[in-house]
Amino acid sequence: MMTDIRTFADVELGPGTLYGAITRLEERGFIRPVGGAARRQPYRLTAMGKRYLEEELAALGSVLRVGLRRLRQA
Amino acid sequence: MKRLFRLATRLYPAWWRQRYRSEFEALLEDVKPGWREFFDVINGALTMQIRTLGMIPIVCTLAGAIVGGVIAFRTPALFASSATIRLGAGDIANAKSATAQELRASLDDALGESGGTRGEALVVTLLRGNSPQTTLRLTYLDRDPTETQRVAERLTAAIVTEKRERAPSAEVLDAPRLPRSPVEPDYSTTVASGGGVGLVLGGVVFLLLRSRRRPANAG
Q1: How far is CA A21 from the centre of its chain?
Q2: Testing the interface with A: which of B40, B41, B51, B52 to mutate, by most A Cβ within 10 A?
């Protein structure tokens, strides 16, 4: 997961930071553990998490579009 | 380094370790161990503790430490200067019976010389009471370090030099020195005590609030 985040976001997440985020996301019902691979625990987005992520990405997309448009006009 | 990581993992709250420890340790086995990762784990553990306890105990601890610090810094400093005097076998009976009264008179004289009335306390301790020799510890406490040493020297002289007939073989083992730091207040202890009281109060408030919330949560 840490390697994946580093690859797509160019952000170096430490183990403590990553599990702080996982704890919060699970508490808020955005992710849930899926049984499987021994001690290494994979997580899956819940329906609520998916909806929340879509909203957040849409908001980011909106900011991105407005920002790029205004940058071209500047 | 792996051992340090395991110790750092113990800093997480018990409920968190119960839920995530196994997978977290599996992740740590995959991580290239370094100081950056180690401090990240420590930071994560402290953050989780704060989330678990809430801010109340932390704020109360800080407030208690600040109050302790204010009290310590507002308390006037008190300095001590001591002399160690060895009394011979022939001195002991006389010294035990007469020392306190005579020293009190000498203290009045010493303070009278400087016109001061600042003397706070005079402590005379018999360190060893067995024959053939007794060691006497004389301590004078005052707000002014120079005055503290001067009066302690004057009192030491009162025993060793001026009262020769009472203590003919008295000998100064350790002369009074100029005190460099006060004996009171003890800043670190006062601040730590304030923090400790704050932590206890914060813990009580936290538990009270939690016990009041629990029935609602339990539904």
Answers
A1: 9
A2: B40
| Assigned token pair, B181 | 């730091």
pLDDT values of chain B reduced to their tens digit, one per residue, 219 residues: 788 888 899 999 888 999 999 999 888 888 877 898 899 999 999 888 888 877 787 888 888 888 888 888 888 888 889 888 877 666 555 555 555 566 666 666 665 555 444 555 566 666 555 555 677 788 888 888 898 898 888 888 877 776 666 667 778 888 999 999 888 888 888 888 888 888 888 878 877 776 665 444 343
CA B42 to chain centre: 29
Token pair 């009270």 is found at: B208
A72 touches chain B (CB under 8 A): no
Question: Across the interface, which of B25, B26, B48 has its CB nearest the CB of A20?
Answer: B48
Which residues have C-beta within 8 Å of that of residue A4, sequence separation ≥ 6? none
Kindly list the residues from chain B whose CB atom is less than 8 angstroms away from the CB atom of residue A35.
none
Q: How far apart are CA B12 and CA B45, in angstroms?
A: 4
Supply the DSSP string of A18-38, one letter for each residue. HHHHHHHHHHTTSEEE---SS
Residue with tokens 């407005």: A66
pTM over cut 0.95: no
Residues in chain B whose Cβ is within 8 Å of chain A: 16, 20, 22-28, 31, 36-37, 39-45, 47-48
* Residues in chain A closer than 8 A to B39 (CB atoms): 14
